[in-house]
Amino acid sequence: MSAAAAVEASSTPRKRFSGLRGVRWRVDLGILPSSPSASIDDLRRVTADTRRRYASLRRRLLIDRHPPKDGDASPDLTVDNPLSQNPDSNWGRFFRNAELRKMVDQDLTRLYPEHHGYFQTPLCQAMLRRILLLWCLQHPEYGYRQGMHELLAPIVYVLHVDLDHLLQVQKPYEDCFNDEFDGITLPENNLFSNYKVKRASDWDSGIETENTHHIMSDSRSLDEIDPDTRDILLLSDCYGAEGELGVILSKKFMEHDAYCMFDNLMDGAQGVVAMASFFSPVVGSSTNLPPVIEASSALYHLLSIVDPFLHAHLVELEVEPQYFALRWLRVLFGREFCLEDLLVIWDEMLSSSNCRLRGDDAEYNFRVLCSPRGAFVAGLAVSMLHYLRSSLLATETTTTCLQRLLNFPQNPDTKKLIEKAKSLQEVALVSNMLPSSSQRDSNKGQFRVSSGYSLPSGSASPVPPLNVLPDGYWEEKWRVLHKDEELGEQSNSDQGSAKKKLAEKLGLYRTKSEPLKVKGALNRSSIRQILFDDVSSDIGTVENHVTTECCEAPINSNNLNVGDFPVVLADQRTSNWIVDETLLSGDNSVVFSKSVCPHGIGNEHEIDSVKSSVTSNSFLSDNDEEAFNMEEPRSQNASNELALDAEATSSRVADAVPEQRATPNHWKSFAGTFQWFWKFGRGSNEASRESQSSSDARHANKDSFDTTTCDGTDNSSGVNKRIEVGDKKMMHALRNLGQSMLENIQVIETVFQQEKGKFDTLDNLSNNILGVKGQSTAIAALKELRKVSNLLQEM
Amino acid sequence: MVLVLAIGDLHIPHRAPDLPAKFKSMLVPGKIQHILCTGNLCIKEVHDYLKSLSPDLHITRGEYDEDVRYPENKTLSIGQFKLGLCHGHQIVPWGDLDSLAMLQRQLDIDILVTGHTHQFKAYKHEGGVIINPGSATGAYSSMTYDVNPSFVLMDIDGLRVVVYVYELIDGEVKVDKIDFKKTATTQSAH
To answer: Cα(B47)–Cα(B52) distance, rounded to whole angstroms?
Structure first.
């Protein structure tokens, strides 16, 4: 705890009792007076009052169903019998309590099982149960909802930890607090009698060692103790103000304190964020939404300001914020972080005040953002979203996205998250005060430029912030890659080594799965590649669509991405999700070497290295680190094909921009297909959701699986499963595949025709680069495509 | 705190169509832990209905029951009490306290629940408690036509049992309560 105190001292002005979380939180929640001038006695008095209130509440509400026999008038039996339907009867209340109790118990048995040493003990469970029951009885309009116990648990834990700390602190001074006169122990001070008579011989403080007399605890010796310890000792002195009832760190009254803290947390203490409102379906007054829904949309609003790309992606996937935010908000991230991390987060959160920032008359967009605490909660949520950014952008369907969101990684860098959250807190507070969303948009640029926070802090992007801010996350990594790219093309080094270098640079892990024996299976693989040409070309155009908001130059680089796809797809094992990743991480292509690659299209070698880097970069978007080294051998073999593809697709790209409208659908279907495979590999069944055209690509992949031998990796086993499933739809898929291929071929042909006409235009670098040689090769590729499609249609 | 319902002699469908509506509204599932049914239901549908009120249902055979598999007597233990169940047509004279006490000693129980007379009775004697829940539907008996629907709910709590009697008198549900306490020492029958 002293370390924490030291940190506090260095960063912010020292807060009182920073070493004692329980006390700190009580101050933050408003139970204890927060003014620095409040004396220990004041604190004790306030504490005693709150405890009295709880005690009386407990006596009142924990009813005795058997009314006392003497004195009271006998209750009316028609009302007070066990089967009475009357809600006011004692029995009715008893049964309701029994219901509540059952619900609470259900949750409590599952509370923090990993901390079973504390939370699952009967004592603790009984205390938690009582607190929750009493709170629910006190607030019948909310009832008991799952999650309330998780809000209570950290509070109780913190109080418990404080007590431990207190015991530690008191050890050296036990003589002062021990009531053992002449060696006789008085029974009531269990807390202190735990320190038995063993006098501190290792004691080196300035306190006298006279150990028979209690009176030695005079102010003289107390002054010699450092202020923190002295505070703690005075806080827990049984003989201070209000006696035992005022002992602030008290085991006996832990339940009372926990109830108070819980109550304040839930009620919000006249602040803005009242946790209880998150549990109730009652609509708020200003908006017509339940508060938790409103808070979730506040979260998305903040996200849209700070990271519109991710926000757009999530909206596009129809991931409503409350799907995941409900859990995040209701237990204040209790489920996403381990207990220790959570305590740190709550420290931060509770230290932000809950008071409404401006008067009631000021307009606001979201109620929850009106207070710093609410803004911190929203900021933390957005920073968590940003932490998951890459994997979220890689997902293709709602379900996977939600899976990612609901399985927050185990050990995130909490410090960073909190820092980011704090910066976002400012944004949230400011943004909330804007009267309308249109203004918000106009101020967006202002935010970015002025506050200069880019996500994440530390991304060194020289590019103008407006364009790149959403992709700033990737800038760094891609910069590195880009440099390597240039090196790679200049040196004309061996393809494999270039790729290796890139891969290492990016710190990618390459699984040791055996590379596909493409050489041996070149015929099959080439066919496969041709098959996938169309697919990849489509994907490539869609890539353009995705990244259209960014600079133009990157669009060309997308071609190379596309060209890489056949290579990727040729790998039967992980091609599915590999392509998936590449597809969906539009950002990758953006950052990917803005200008160099398009110029070097004619250079096959460069293409390969570029492609490998592209794919390897695409893998960055995915947390998986599977079979990266696939590309290396693959690209060697398929270089020719790749070159053709690259050129073909690059030419297509020229017209891709106008075609973007048509292609996204196509892209989605294909992407969906690959997504399907990827998910299938992970054991989910999303196939039903995909459209017919998706079956094409699926079948195409399936072919590849069938034809090539697979090594026994996990991926391949998943692949085999896919094969079985795909069997059913083979014929139909084949037909569809042929049709799609025809379409693609037609598109390519039109592109070429147009391109011939556009040869003179200078604005399209890719066209110029193609040259005559490129055209011929592209045309040859097209012919092959046609052949294959005919084959398919015959089948 | 265990709630035990003692009910019987419904004679559905022969002598009565159904339980009184007010009784039915009170008997909701989830509150009652055990049901002791003295018998004469008579049909399976009633058995199923009672089963829905509580999973722990005990029935003894009455002379008009259509299911012949119910036992003649039944004993069970709830909390500190031993309870016994019998329809009562076997005990002659019907409803005679001494004869019933003989059965109670025979079964070695603290609380005996019998029926057949269609009259609510609750006796306490030195051996224990004898309860007759009457007829829940108010069906006529071979002895009398003037029968008020009634049943009994026992609240067993440690060594104390509170007997709530629900009677439908003139269309109104009247509730009465009787307290019984068991002496701490267990009694030996023989």
So the answer is: 9
Residue B124 main-chain phi, psi, to 5 deg: -125, 125
Could you list the beta-strand ranges (E) of B52-158.
Answer: 56-59, 73-78, 81-86, 111-113, 120-125, 128-133, 150-157
Q: Print burial letters for A586-606: b (CB count within 10 Å at least 16), e (below 16).
A: bbbbbbbbbebbbbbbbbbbb
Length of chain A measured in residues: 795
- Structure confidence at residue A187 (pLDDT): 56
Shortest alpha-carbon distance between residue B49 and chain A (Å): 17
DSSP at A225: S
d(CA A68, CA A74): 9
Residue A284's pLDDT is what? 59
Mean of the per-residue pLDDT values for chain A? 61
Does B31 contact A82 at a Cβ distance shorter than 8 Å?
A: yes
With contacts defined as CB-CB under 8 Å, which chain B residues touch A78? 173-175
Q: Please judge whether A82 and B166 are an interchain contact, meaning their C-beta atoms are less than 8 angstroms apart.
A: no
Among A66, A83, A95, whose Cβ lies nearest the Cβ of B153? Answer: A83
Q: Which of B79, B134, B137, B77 is nearest to B108 (CA)?
A: B77
- Strands B56-59 and B34-37 come out as parallel
* CA A440 vs CA A421, A428, A446, A777, B18: distances in Å: 20, 11, 10, 51, 69
Quick: pLDDT tens for A66-101: 544 443 445 677 777 777 777 777 787 788 888 888
Q: How far apart are CA A203 and CA A222, in angstroms?
A: 15
The separation between CA A38 and the C-alpha centre of its own chain, rounded to angstroms, equals 40
Contact of B159 with chain A, judged by CB distance below 8 Å, is answered with no
Q: Does residue B27 sit at the A interface (CB-CB below 8 Å)? A: yes
Give the pLDDT score at A760. 45
Report the residue count for chain B: 190
Does any CB of chain A come closer than 8 Å to the CB of residue B25? yes
pLDDT tens by residue, A628-679: 334 334 434 444 444 444 444 444 434 433 444 444 444 444 444 444 444 4
Both tokens assigned to A721: 């499963």
pLDDT at A118 over 70: yes
Is the confidence at residue A314, as pLDDT, over 70?
Answer: yes
The tens digit of pLDDT for each residue in A54-74 reads 888 888 877 554 544 443 445
Contact A378, A369 (CB under 8 A): yes
Q: Tell me the residue type at A638.
A: A
Is 70 exceeded by the pLDDT of residue B50?
yes
Angle subtended by helix axes A122-138 and A40-61, to nearest 10: 80
Task: Give yes or no for a contact between A127 and A251, defined as CB atoms under 8 angstroms apart.
Answer: no
Q: Supply the DSSP symbol for A181.
A: B
E strands, A508-557, are none
B21 and chain A: CB distance < 8 Å anywhere?
no
Each residue's pLDDT tens digit, B92-128: 899 899 999 999 999 999 999 999 999 999 998 887 8
Which chain B residues are within 8 Å of A90, Cβ to Cβ?
none
Count CB pairs under 8 A between chains A and B. 31
Nearest Cα of chain B lies from the Cα of A138 at a distance, in angstroms, of 24
Q: The sheet that has B34-37: what strands, in order across it?
A: B56-59, B34-37, B2-7, B150-157, B160-169, B172-181
Label residue B135 by pLDDT band (50, 70, 90).
very high
Q: Is the pLDDT of residue B133 over 90?
A: yes
Q: How far is A70 from chain B (nearest CA, A)?
A: 14
The verdict on a CB contact (< 8 Å) between B175 and A81 is yes
- Per-residue tokens: B82: 């031993």
CA angle, residues A493, A569, A506, in degrees to nearest 5? 45
Helix A639-656 and helix A765-794, axial crossing angle in degrees, nearest 10: 110
CA dihedral sign of residues A663, A664, A668, A671: positive
